[in-house]
Structure formats: structure tokens, C-alpha cells
Design brief:
There is one protein chain. The chain is of the alpha+beta class. The protein has 3 domains: 105 residues, Periplasmic binding protein-like II (D-Maltodextrin-Binding Protein, domain 2, 3-Layer(aba) Sandwich); 73 residues, Periplasmic binding protein-like II (D-Maltodextrin-Binding Protein, domain 2, 3-Layer(aba) Sandwich), CATH 3.40.190; 90 residues, 2-Layer Sandwich (Alpha-Beta Plaits). Strands 1, 4, 5, 6, 7 and 13 form a 6-stranded mixed sheet that branches.
Length: 304
Amino acid sequence: MHARTSEKQKVGYLGPTTDSGPDTTTFGYMAALKHFAAEEGEVELVNLPSHPDICKEVGQKKIQFGVVGVENVIAGMVAESIRAIEETHGHYGVSIWGEIVIPIQMFYLSKNPDIKPTKVLSHSTGLEQCSKFINALIQNDVESVVIKSTGEAAYAASQDETVACIASARAEEVYGLQRIGDSGNVADNPKNMTRFWILNKEYGDPSGHDKSCFLVNLEQTQVGAFQDTLGCFADHGCNLLIAYPISIPGKPWEYTFLLEYEGHIDDEAIDQAWEELRNRGLCLNPPTFLGSYPSVTSNIHVPA
């Protein structure tokens, strides 16, 4: 963490404000709690209603860190988070500072399990993680509704007996909900995990085992542009971890590509590859360096 100050550093996470106060049942809250456990007493966790709000608050220095979900092993990359980081990076210079992975279990909950719900609420990524279960509910005339967070979904379910939610076990406890029927963990894959990025105004210090993330927007009509882009890094021995296309709102069939590599921007190989990419003019817009940060995914224990 950064140098200690007399004031607590604020850490933003995804979660609504309810009649009882800030929600503490989302996986973003759990990720923030886990990542900053060593700084307990030195940080203040702040709930915010959306990932774009978290990014903006970091960019405007209203909070020092933000925790956003970026990748799930079932649903894949969270485009909402990446777009929000891209936008706020351009306006305010937000960077990826760290990452953390937590196991995810999803439960089908309601206030009164004896009453058949008319709709089930959750965050879009939460619904995707339970697509098989959700499809079965839809076939049984239960409407699937996207909402800003699993915490907001759980709170809504606690206020209306005809509403169910897909949320955490912590939400079950905090909001006095119950599991419907004999449903346990309803995620498609019981070994479910989500990766979160920790955002800051600066990127992370080198740890010797790092990742670096870039965004590139390529000209469709330029033959081999994507291959040439990857070649800038391959020629310097940089190992590609992720290449993910993100559709550009308002520009049909055009994509920004997120590229994640092993290594830190302070490493000679990554730095030289980045310099070459910027100088070769392959991108429609200048390529973006989003940050370097210590890697945790290679040491993750997959839950049984």
C-alpha cells in the first residue's frame, strides 16, 4: 500500500445504500475486505452504486482505491468495468494498481420461499454465472431482471416476497433471506471464481511477478494489424495472457482490444514492446497503458 497517512484511505466497492446503511454483501465488498485486510483500521470501505462510479471517484481523488470485478471464470471479462476504466483513464489517469481473486458461490434467495417469485434479480455477471439455472427459471415463468449489484438484488428481495435474487451467502444472512427449495450453489461451475482489479491514480510497483494491461483500437481495413500488434510484444519475448475484444458503443463492428501480458512496464522487454507499438502507428487512436500490477492468478488454489 502507499505510504501511511494520518487519515484513513478510502476504498470504493460495488454496493447500494439501503435503509439500513451501506450494503456489505456484494463480492466486491468481500474482495476489498480481503485485499486490504492487512491495513484494517487504516482504510475505510466506501460503497458506490456502479463500477463507472467507482472509477470516477478514484479519478477525481474522492477515494484512493477502487475495487471492480473484471473477469469471471464462467462469464468471462466484465466489459462494463473495462469501458469505465478506459473512459476514466482518459479523463483522469486512473490505473490498475493490483488484483485479487475470490471464490464465488451464488444462491437463489427470497424472503418467503413458500411463495413462488415472479422475477429473479441480480447483476448481469451474476446471472451469466448461473445461466443454466436461470434458463430453467425462465421456462417456469420467472422473469430474469438485471440490476446494478447482487447486494441491490438481495435488498429488493428482502422488501418484496414476490421477488427472488441471485446473491451471496452473506446476503442471505444480512437481509434475512432463505434459500428456495433445495437449491445450493446455483453457479454453472462449482469452481467459480472472480478476479477484481484494484484501481488507483498510479500503477503498482514491480514485484518480480507482474502483469501489464493495454488497450488498442485497430483499423479494420489494415491487413495483419492485430498480428503486427501482438508481434511488437512477441518480438521482445513477452507472454500474452489475454486478448479480449470490447465492442465500441456507437461504432458497429468496431472493437477495442484489451491485451494483458506477463511482466511490468518497468521491465525492459515490456517497455521496449510498448515503445515499438506506439511508434508503429498501427492503432486508430493512441494505444493506452492501463497499468502494471502484481499477479495473483498463477498462485490461485482452485476450490474443490
